[in-house]
């Protein structure tokens, strides 16, 4: 019988107690009732580990960094061995041809049964220009991605890079970086997006645990994100929200309001437009999250968050007019032009009226 | 002012704006005023208040006023659209007009010339002139529809999954724009589009009242369009 998750965990020296703790914490993170902790434990004890191919395209590796910091139980050993990470060029032991052989081997052996975890994205511009932007073992990443994707059971788009494009796709996007779901020729495997730069570790492990336990993808929204973590905005669950509703804002980084922990809206907080779980699950084992540390949310899990102007402006910068302006500056400018035109028109009208008076009304 | 040179003449009148249209017009004007002011302060809030959060609800009230006026605007438009069907033909003008009729474009051209001081006399219309119809349809009606759709899509983000606003608007509109932030930006930009319409609309209404051969502002109060001379009514 193939190894189960539980076998691996025990082999790693994890006690049954911390194993059960992991199951109940994961159930709680997924918003499931406590009975599901038992189901998760059962699945982990009995189901064979799912093979996972973890491929890296254009990326900064922050998703891997986040993943290995998952809080429970002893992340660095267990989470990694929980899923059988057959290939992950950042953390696997093998190297060179030996490592590359694993990719083909996994694909051949588990055809249609493995999960393809994509970190980063391919630069499609190389196909147009013949340039190179992401070469793995002498071949374009796009090739490796297509080959794996066409044989995968499901694809996880880790992070904002794989989900939306992120920084490498920011204007002018010289490499043609393209999120996984928009890459032509990657087949029909369902794609689940787990955006964030990086995504929260607990969210990453919970998504994988869910897929193992229930043998299906978690419920997703229209944009392909798991609803249990991405159906609410940071703003909806932010602990500074009472200050927002009261009208109490930080106006400067070092003012009294900043010390008192008022709302960061005026400092450019993107919480009101950002779907993520930071304000509920938080970071580093639930220790804190950016807003708690006094910094506005920069909207890292949203599509195109690099191209919306400064992280510290509330109103989006619009670049399409050649100059940088926000909606109010554009609108007030246009209103001023129209207002000026109206005033001029009124003056000419008055003039004409006096000129025409005689012949008009006699 | 003009009494010296004006000869005695009669002023024919036509009943144009029925009561529901007039009522809607002024309620709607009030709603847009509230929406624009509160909307502006949602984007750029008032100076911060100090003290206990539990003592205040300023941003909450501003947003509440915005959403309440938003409902008034939306149901107002629905009611107005209903009246376009059951009301008189003038009630239909801003929603539906025959753009295939050459006389519509001829009238529009004539009206443009009148505004460019290229012709001495505007034509006489009992309802809206073709240029007014053009502006009200394209700038006002569609601008408002856009605000209602984007507004309720953002509103649904707050009321959350399962709420009617979320299911009806948020679910498809946010992905259509890419993400929520762009919806905010567009909602904000179109506010200025509507403000520009209001500037032009108010100016033109007052100017026409003074310079053209028909009453404008008072008609939206009494419903009657009075004409300052007995010349024939062009309509289209
Ligand atoms: C003439 C009509 C309207 C105008 C001029 C207007 C104006 C504005 C402005 C300027 C903002 C700030 C946008 C930003 O920069 O974030 C805003 C936000 C908003 N508006 Fe409107 N709006 C209108 C109609 C509506 C309607 C019909 C609704 C529907 C209920 C609505 C709901 C909202 C919501 C939910 C927000 C976001 C509030 C928040 O983020 O706290 N608006 N509006
Ligand atoms: S700090 Fe940001 S997320 Fe929190 S209430 Fe203020 S605007 Fe919303
Ligand atoms: S608070 Fe905002 S910017 Fe920070 S990690 Fe969460 S979603 Fe990203």
Would you mind describing this structure in some detail?
The complex is a heterodimer of chains A (362) and B (236). With 362 residues, chain A is an alpha/beta fold. Chain A folds into two domains: 5-230, Rossmann fold (3-Layer(aba) Sandwich), CATH 3.40.50; 235-307, Irregular (Cytochrome-c3 Hydrogenase, Chain A, domain 2), CATH 4.10.480. Chain A contains 16 helices and seven strands. Chain A has helices spanning 5-11, 16-29, 35-46, 62-67, 75-82, 96-109, 125-129, 141-149, 159-163, 201-214, 227-230, 234-237, 241-246, 256-260, 278-281, 327-361; strands at 51-56, 84-88, 115-119, 135-136, 139-140, 154-158, 191-194. In chain A, the strands form two sheets. A five-stranded parallel sheet of chain A has the order 2-1-3-6-7, sandwiched between helices. In chain A, strands 4-5 form a two-stranded antiparallel sheet. Chain A is globular, with a radius of gyration of 26 Å. Chain A starts with a helix and ends with a helix. The model of chain A has no long low-confidence stretch (mean pLDDT 86). Chain B has 236 residues and is mostly helical. Chain B has one domain (13-46, 58-226): Transmembrane di-heme cytochromes, Chain C (Fumarate Reductase Cytochrome B subunit), CATH 1.20.950. Chain B contains eight helices and two strands, in the order βααααααααβ. Chain B has helices spanning 19-43, 58-86, 89-92, 102-115, 130-159, 164-177, 180-211, 219-222; strands at residues 13-15, 224-226. Chain B has a two-stranded antiparallel sheet. In chain B, helix 1 packs antiparallel against helix 2 (58-86) and helix 5 crosses helix 6. In chain B, 26% of the residues are buried. The chains are: A alpha/beta (362), B mainly alpha (236). The structure holds protoporphyrin IX containing FE and iron/sulfur cluster (2 copies). Protoporphyrin IX containing FE is lined by residues 32, 35-36, 39-40, 42-43, 63, 66-67, 70, 73-74, 147-148, 151-152, 154-155, 184, 187-188, 191, 194 of chain B.
């Amino acid at each position: 019988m193939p190894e189960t998750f539980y076998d691996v965990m025990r082999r790693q020296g994890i006690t049954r107690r911390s194993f059960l703790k992991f199951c109940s914490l994961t159930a709680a993170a997924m918003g499931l009732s406590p009975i599901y902790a038992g189901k998760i434990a059962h699945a982990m004890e009995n189901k064979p580990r799912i093979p996972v191919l973890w491929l890296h395209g254009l990326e900064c590796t922050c998703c891997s960094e986040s993943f290995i910091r998952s809080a429970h139980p002893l992340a660095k050993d267990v989470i990694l061995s929980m899923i059988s990470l057959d290939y992950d060029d950042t953390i696997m032991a093998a190297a060179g041809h030996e490592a590359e052989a694993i990719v083909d081997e996994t694909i051949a052996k588990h055809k249609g049964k493995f999960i393809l975890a994509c970190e980063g994205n391919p630069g499609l511009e190389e196909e147009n220009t013949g340039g190179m932007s992401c070469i793995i073992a002498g071949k374009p990443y796009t090739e490796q991605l297509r080959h794996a994707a066409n044989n995968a059971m499901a694809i996880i788009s880790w992070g904002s890079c794989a989900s939306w494009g992120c920084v490498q796709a920011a204007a002018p996007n010289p490499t043609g970086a393209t999120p996984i779901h928009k890459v032509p020729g990657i087949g029909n495997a369902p794609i689940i997006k787990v955006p964030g730069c990086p995504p929260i570790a607990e969210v990453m492990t919970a998504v994988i645990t869910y897929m193992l336990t229930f043998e299906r993808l978690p419920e997703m929204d229209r944009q392909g994100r798991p609803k249990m973590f991405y159906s609410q905005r940071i703003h909806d669950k932010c602990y500074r929200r009472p200050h927002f509703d009261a009208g109490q804002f930080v106006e400067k980084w070092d003012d009294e309001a900043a010390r008192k922990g008022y709302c960061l809206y005026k400092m450019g907080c993107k919480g009101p437009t950002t779907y993520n779980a930071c304000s509920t699950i938080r970071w580093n084992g639930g220790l804190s999250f950016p807003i708690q540390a006094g910094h506005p949310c920069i909207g890292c899990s949203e599509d195109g968050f690099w191209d919306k102007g400064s992280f510290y402006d509330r109103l989006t910068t619009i670049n399409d007019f050649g100059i940088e302006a926000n909606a109010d500056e554009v609108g007030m400018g246009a209103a001023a032009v129209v207002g000026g035109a109206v005033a001029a028109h009124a003056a000419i009208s008055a003039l004409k009226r006096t000129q025409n008076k005689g012949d008009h009304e006699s | 002012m003009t009494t010296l040179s004006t000869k005695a003449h009669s002023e024919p009148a036509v009943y144009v704006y029925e009561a529901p249209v007039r009522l809607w017009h002024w309620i709607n004007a009030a709603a847009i005023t509230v929406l624009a002011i509160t909307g502006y302060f949602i984007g750029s809030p008032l100076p911060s208040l100090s003290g206990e959060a539990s003592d205040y609800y300023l941003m909450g009230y501003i947003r509440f006023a915005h959403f309440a006026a938003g409902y008034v605007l939306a149901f107002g438009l629905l009611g107005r659209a209903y009246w376009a069907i059951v009301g008189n033909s003038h009630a239909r003008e801003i929603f539906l007009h025959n753009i295939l009729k050459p006389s519509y474009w001829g009238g529009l051209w004539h009206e443009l010339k009148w505004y460019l001081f290229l012709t001495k006399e505007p034509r006489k219309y009992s309802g809206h002139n073709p240029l007014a119809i053009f502006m009200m349809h394209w700038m006002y009606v569609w601008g408002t529809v856009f605000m209602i759709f984007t507004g309720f899509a953002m509103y649904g983000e707050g009321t959350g999954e399962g709420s009617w606003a979320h299911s009806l608007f948020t679910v498809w509109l946010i992905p259509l724009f890419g993400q929520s932030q762009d919806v905010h930006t567009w909602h904000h930009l179109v506010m200025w589009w509507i403000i520009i319409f209001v500037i032009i609309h108010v100016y033109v209404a007052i100017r026409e009242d003074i310079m053209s051969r028909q009453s404008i502002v008072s008609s939206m109060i009494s419903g009657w369009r009075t004409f300052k001379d007995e010349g024939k009514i062009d309509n289209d």
